[in-house]
Amino acid sequence: MNHKQEGAPVFQAPPLSCDAHFHVFGPAEQYPYGGDLRYKPPHAPLEDYLDLAAHLGIERFVFVQPSAYARDNRCMLDAMREIGPARCRGIVDIDENLPDAELQKLHDAGVRGVRINVSPVHPPKTGLADSMIPRIRKFEQRFLSMGLQSCWQLDFLLPGWLTFELMPMLASLKVDFTMAHMGMFLGRDGPAQPGFVALLDLIKNGSGHAHVKLTGSYRMGTLPHMADCAPMAQALIAAAPERIIWGSDYPHLSFADKVGSVQLFNLLADWAPDAATRKKILVDNPQRLFGF
Question: For residues 197 and 193, what is the distance between their CA atoms, to the nearest angstrom?
Answer without folding.
Answer: 6
